[in-house]
Amino acid sequence: MAPNAAVRTADPALPAAHAVPAGGWSDAAVLAATAAVADGPLSAAATRIDHGEYPLPILSALGEAGALGVHLDRHGGRFGLAISAMEAASRACGATGFLMWAHDVCGLYLEQSGNPALSGALLDDHVAGRSFGGTALSNPMKAFSGIEPMLLRARPVPGGYRVTGTLPWVSHIGQGQYCGAIAGVERADGTVSHEIMFLLRCDEPAELRPCPQFSGMEGTSTWSLRLKDYLVATDDLIADPARPFVGRIRGAFILLQTGMALGVAQGSIDAMLAVEDQLGHVNQFLDDRPADLAAELAELRAAIQRLALTPYEGSKDYLLDVLDARAQGAEFALRAAQSSLLHQGARGYLASAAPQRRVREAHFVAIVTPALKHLRWEMARLSRDVLPAEGVPA
Ligand SMILES: Cc1cc2nc3c(=O)[nH]c(=O)nc-3n(C[C@H](O)[C@H](O)[C@H](O)COP(=O)(O)OP(=O)(O)OC[C@H]3O[C@@H](n4cnc5c(N)ncnc54)[C@H](O)[C@@H]3O)c2cc1C
User: Comparing C-alpha atoms, which of 70, 7, 12, 13 is closest to residue 36?
Assistant: First the structure.
């Protein structure tokens, strides 16, 4: 991102973040408050966010609405509700939906760590949108799947570990913020014994460097993150070893991303319907008409909500279903965004128009880890494990 793009704007129209309401967050209240943010200040800011405004005040408001914490065990483990809230925000702005996802999974790491130093006041502030942090797990997720090498390396030292390495792009971070990260622990001979997962605090000595300008997602405060002998104290450990932990949360991590896909697709259908009165007479000759897409979206949403009932189910079949739903979501968002641009024509091609922005947001849904190609790689790998080898009698 451009060096000055991560601006925190104070929006006086937005309320300050508060704590959980006395009776907890009801499903209806979370959806209503999230829709109020999405349809109001978020819709108004979507173009500015696309051009680099980092919407922390809006994330605070979403935290106050409960939209950043209802998936956690302490708030009922309501993954379906968290996905619906992410859908509502992504319908207005895909970049904000991505920030919600990064924030949601970071909260999940903190709670599931079982580490009292991470799951107390720090997590309360995170959930309420009083503090902010994301996730640096793209590289380790790919490393665990055998796609690329692990970029961060750790050495055991008294009181914790020292970590060195560079991650090319991590979003939703900045001074005073943090993210979940993973490093391979090196033995004296340089081989890796296991991995650790930890909370990486993004102040000095961690170094944030500007990324090149992206074609979208510019408001997500995405930085290259460089560590040199960064000390991870035992209080900041999320999991040691990290692999069993990641195996346990992987389905939840991937499933939550479907909220972005559903929202970008729904926003695209909205944009098609918005021009139906003026352009329906010619748009009827296009494929992927809004009514057809809406029916498909409803089916996909229902399948995702069913999977969201058991986000920690460990079976291979379940993980395959989650990967498939995530892949279908990305493919569907791409189709819906493209069709939306075709339906809107030149007005959707204006620099300020939502359809062209959603085309870029949908492509991000398809390339962010696990990217469509990685989802298919992983599904092929798991299916090979599940199915008997060819030629072997049943
Ligand atoms: C806007 C944006 C935000 C992101 N936010 C996060 C985040 O919050 N957390 C996180 O962990 N990941 C984040 N990522 C990384 C993302 O999830 C993918 O891992 C990344 O886009 C690489 O995926 P790939 O499929 O292109 O990798 P592959 O096709 O497998 O590419 C192989 C490797 O080459 C590297 N690579 C390719 N081109 C370049 C380049 N020009 N400069 C440097 N390296 C390059 C990739 O990083 C990758 O590791 C973000 C990426 C983008 C574009």
Answer: 13
pTM of the model: 0.93
User: From the CA of 139, how far away is ligand 1's center (Å)?
Assistant: 8
Q: Tell me the best of 51, 105, 369, 376 to mutate to test the pocket of ligand 1, counting ligand atoms within 8 Å of each CB and taking the most.
A: 369
Domain that holds residue 73: 7-132
Nearest residue (by CA) to ligand 1, atom 21, is: 368
212 with 294, same domain: the answer is: no
What is the percentage of the chain residues whose pLDDT exceeds 70? 93
| Cα 364 to averaged position of ligand 1 atoms, centre (Å) | 11
Is the pLDDT reported for residue 392 higher than 60? Answer: no
Burial 259-280 (b: 16+ CB within 10 A, else e): bbbbbbbbbbbbbbebbeeebe
Same domain? 212 vs 285: no
Inside any domain, residue 392: no
pLDDT at 6: 36
Domain assignment of residue 252, yes or no: no
CA-nearest residue, atom 46 of ligand 1: 168
